[in-house]
Design goal:
Number of strands: 16
Subcellular location: Secreted
Number of domains: 2
Largest sheet: 12 strands, mixed
Shape: globular
CATH architecture of the largest domain: 3-Layer(aba) Sandwich
Structural class: alpha/beta
CATH superfamily of the largest domain: Alpha/Beta hydrolase fold, catalytic domain
Family: Belongs to the peptidase S10 family.
Main location: secreted
Keywords: Carboxypeptidase, Disulfide bond, Glycoprotein, Hydrolase, Protease, Secreted, Signal
Function: Probable carboxypeptidase.
Radius of gyration: 23 Å
């Protein structure tokens, strides 16, 4: 009987194709990586890379890097890290912000860029999953043509599905305290993801995820408010004059984004504002706006990363699927994407009501998402202050300022920091280690 079945399959191209497709539906994979090109020694930490399929036919293959805590992975927190964009690879977090490796900043000479160990890795006390999302980001890819575009709310659901499947394959981490983290545009997706996980914990039939809270750095939270606070921030940092600031406030009434064409006076002053600030680097106002082709340019590391990741030996070591993209880019801006969450404040409110703790931090030299806007939406939640504004210290130096609220939310600034943790990784690491351990900053 079996022989007759397979004989008929071989004679029927349609049946054969159907069987092949069935076999391809489950292509989840995971590999332990012990050596990486560019790093001379065996990796001093445990790295796993792999794909998890999500969707009805597992057509979306999401790529991740997983690094176990270097302290006690059986009990330490598990953190899912999402890089912003949307469309920026999570390797940005791993190699620039809070991972155990970084690129050595040498002039590129045609050979493979080198890697060095860091002193500030968050993996010293937590295990981290760095996830490439949405599909089309980093090495995540789709095996079929998708019927609809990715979106903020859709990503929250897809990330939840990814996490459920990942934990099913890594059941030894199912009881670890779980957190979601990210920065920049992740400020839209992370709070929604936390709410989605929380909701899923009360539904049938999967085991609940041990969700405890979330971490966000310079998070985009409300498009209009974040932008509007650029003007008072620029005034406070001496980028615009007192007179221009007063004129902007009087004529625009605090609304500087998408100004109506009839508000000619407001438009004129907004144009003056842009003339004063258009040569300022938004991600860090003290940084130089420069071509990434020179070593003294901050973004030169992005160029080195592209050379390193696209090397054939690196892709082989990371076990990248041959069905993935041909050339890796740090940020894929061409992904079809719907920004359907205009403000994530309601998600923060719901997460607060459900009792999840949170750490919101701001590099205070970022004008793209200025700390003034972040403070404003935190105030709008109307929670009482538990620990009032004070400096937080590293040894005898002020590393920033902090305030704690009754909804278990801690706000902190990083003195001299920019849009992401990469500008002050040591200070940001100390802040995170204290918070994740339940200590006051």
């Amino acid at each position: 009987m079996a022989n007759n079945y397979f004989s008929s399959v071989l004679k029927s191209p349609l049946l054969l194709l159907h069987l092949v497709l069935l076999n391809q539906q489950h292509v989840d994979s995971a590999s332990i990586v012990k050596f990486l090109p560019g790093f001379d020694d065996p990796l001093p930490f445990e790295l796993e890379t792999g794909y998890i399929g999500v969707g009805e036919q597992e057509e979306v293959q999401l790529f991740y890097y997983f690094i176990k805590s270097e302290r006690n992975p059986k009990e330490d927190p598990l953190l899912l890290w999402l890089t912003g964009g949307p469309g920026c690879s999570s390797i940005s977090g791993l190699l620039y912000e809070n991972g155990p490796l970084a690129l050595k900043l040498d002039v590129y000479n045609g050979t493979l860029p080198s890697l060095v160990s860091t002193t500030y890795s968050w993996t010293k006390t937590s295990s981290i999953i760095y996830l490439d999302q949405p599909v089309g980001t980093g090495f995540s890819y789709t095996r079929t043509q998708l019927s609809k575009k990715a979106s903020d709310s859709g990503e929250a659901k897809q990330i939840h599905k990814f996490l459920e499947k990942w934990l099913a394959k890594h059941q030894e981490f199912s009881s670890n305290p779980f957190y979601v983290g990210g920065d920049s545009y992740s400020g839209m997706v992370v709070p929604a993801t936390v709410q989605q996980i929380s909701k899923g914990n009360y539904e049938c039939c999967n085991p609940p995820i041990n969700l405890k809270g979330y971490v966000l750095g310079n998070p985009i939270t409300d498009f209009a408010s974040d932008y509007n606070y650029r003007i008072p921030y620029a005034h406070g940092m001496a980028m615009i004059s007192d007179e221009l600031y007063q004129s902007l406030k009087r004529s625009c009434k605090g609304e500087y984004r998408n100004v109506h064409p009839r508000k000619t006076e407001c438009l004129k002053f907004v144009e003056e504002f842009h003339k004063c600030t258009n040569r300022v680097c938004e991600r860090h106002i003290l940084d130089s706006c420069c071509e990434r082709k020179t070593l003294n340019c901050y973004t030169y590391r992005f160029l080195l990363t592209r050379y390193w990741v696209n090397d054939k030996t690196v892709r082989k070591a990371l076990q990248i699927s041959k069905n993935s993209i041909e050339e890796w880019v740090r940020c894929n801006r061409s992904i079809p994407y719907t920004k359907d969450i205009l403000s994530s404040i309601p998600y923060h409110m719901n997460n607060s009501i459900n009792g999840y703790r949170s750490l919101i931090y701001s590099g205070d030299h970022d004008i793209q998402v200025p700390f003034l806007g972040t403070q404003a939406w935190i105030r709008s939640l109307n929670y009482s202050i538990i620990d009032d504004w004070r400096p937080w210290m590293i040894k005898d130096q002020i590393a920033g300022y902090t305030r704690t609220y009754a909804n278990k939310m801690t706000f902190a600034t990083i003195k001299g920091g920019g849009h992401t943790a990469e500008f002050k990784p040591d200070e940001t690491s100390v802040m995170f280690q204290r918070w994740i351990s339940g200590q006051p900053l």
